Structure formats: structure tokens, C-alpha cells
Amino acid sequence: MLLDAIAGTDPRTEGGLYHNFATACAGDLAGCRVGYSPSINGMPVDGEVSAVLEQWLTTLHDAGAIVERTDLQADGYEEVWDTLYLGATFKLYELLSPEARAALSPDFIDFIGKAAHITSEAGMKAEVQRHQVIRQVYRATRHLDLIVTPTTASAAFPADRDALIGEAARAKNNSFRLTEIWNLTGQPALSLPAGWTKAGLPIGVQIIGHLNKDALVLRAGKAGELPLAKRPNLP
């Protein structure tokens, strides 16, 4: 319903879509080929996350999907993302007033310090490499209708930055790696709860479609939505 309100053709942007997205959520996934990649580029994923997702995949089976295992590779996308994101963020930082800069957190100031070293040449090289990533992902997944991965490689890490040591720090550093790639390729993707750890922390599953296949992604999301009755009773 939100997409129906905000999406549509617009002469000010080349990315507008028109579709009745709310209606697209209805229906099953009969004959839909889904590739489940438990990681990307072999990135370590917590065993509890993997176990929950493999159990969740039965919801797609029940909706008629044909699920197969795939091990997605996208050479160097991590470095491409870091370069483009750091460079773009620094350009926006330069537009801030002195008062706005003074309000930024120490973590963000450290981040900007790294971004300041991104050169125009590095940015242009990363953009060329981004298109190589797009082609590689397309070749690997063109026989599929949808791709499924974990949303993050671990369950939630502590909110307290002082508690981020050891495994918690690693989880935070890797927390967005499995979602960053779809920002590079421009493919539609959504995340929804797939289950919970034994400690009651939510685990997310990510559903990705090909370009302009937003409606199919939404239909799969609706099919894979867990009923409220399955949610744990937590204090």
C-alpha cells in the first residue's frame, strides 16, 4: 500500500515504476524458481541464523516455489561498495554547516576521516567495477526468479557501542554486507522476520528479485510472512 502511494512514473526520475503493488501480494509462488544462497562470497554466517532460514524456506515450498541451493559469488563487491559509499558520504558531509558537523558522533567523524582519502580516480574505478558485479550476479542468477539470503550474518548485536567487542564487534562490522550488494545492482529486495534465536532475538531473511520484478518480491514476502502465533512470548 505504501509503494502504491509513493511509486509511479515521474518525469523527474528515470527509476519510476507503475504497478498495483497491494494486489501483487496476492497469489502463490507456483513454479517460481528460488535460489537460496546461505552466504555471499563465503562470508561466515552464524549457525543459528542458517538453521532458522533453512526452516523458514518451507514457507516458500508450501506456496509452490521450487527452492534450490546456490552459492552466490560477486567478486570484490565489498571494496566497490566501501569506495562508492565513503566517497558519496564525504561529498554530503562537505555540504554541512559547521554547527551540523559539530553535532556528529565520534564514530561518524572517524568514518568521515576514512572517506576523505577516497580520490575521484578511485571512485571512477569503483563505478566500472560495479557494472562488472552487476553482470556477474546476473549471469549467476538469470535462471532464477528470486534469490534468498540471510539479511544479516548474525542476530542483533548489542546497542551499547562500549559492549561491541569480540564477536559482537565482528557482527556489527559485517552486519550490512549481505544487503549492500543489492544497492550496487539496483535490484528490488526486502527483509522480513524468518524466526528467532533461542535467546529471542529476531533473524531476518532477504528476498531479492530481478530488475522491475518488485511485485514478485512482494508476493514472496507475503507468502513467507510468519503468523503472529509463531512469535515467541518475550518479557
Concise summary:
By secondary structure, the protein is an alpha/beta fold. It has 10 helices and 5 strands. It has a 5-stranded mixed β-sheet with strand order 2-1-3-5-4.
Shape: globular
SSE string, helix = H, strand = E? HHEHEHHHHEHHEEH
Give the distance, in angstroms, between the N- and C-terminal Cα atoms: 32 Å
Q: Strand share of the residues?
A: 5-15%
Largest sheet: 5 strands, mixed
Radius of gyration: 19 Å
Parts with pLDDT < 50 across at least 5 consecutive residues? none
Q: Helical element count? A: 10
Please provide the count of β strands.
5
Overall pLDDT metric: 87
State the share of residues found in helices, binned by percent. Answer: 40-55%
Computed structural class: alpha/beta
Strands of the widest sheet, in order across it, are 2-1-3-5-4
Domains (count): 2
Give keywords.
single chain; 235 residues; alpha/beta; 2 domains; 5-stranded mixed β-sheet; 5 strands; 45% helix; globular
Describe the protein.
- 45% of the residues lie in helices and 12% in strands.
- With 235 residues, the chain is of the alpha/beta class.
- It has two domains: 28-70 and 144-224, no CATH class; 74-127, no CATH class.
- Strand 4 and strand 5 (202-209) form a beta hairpin.
- The mean pLDDT is 87.
Compile the SSE list and pairings.
Elements: H1 2-6, H2 21-24, E1 33-36, H3 47-62, E2 66-69, H4 77-93, H5 98-102, H6 106-115, H7 120-141, E3 146-150, H8 167-173, H9 177-185, E4 189-196, E5 202-209, H10 214-223
Parallel strand pairs: 1-2, 1-3
Antiparallel strand pairs: 3-5, 4-5
Helix pairs in contact: 4-6, 4-7, 4-9
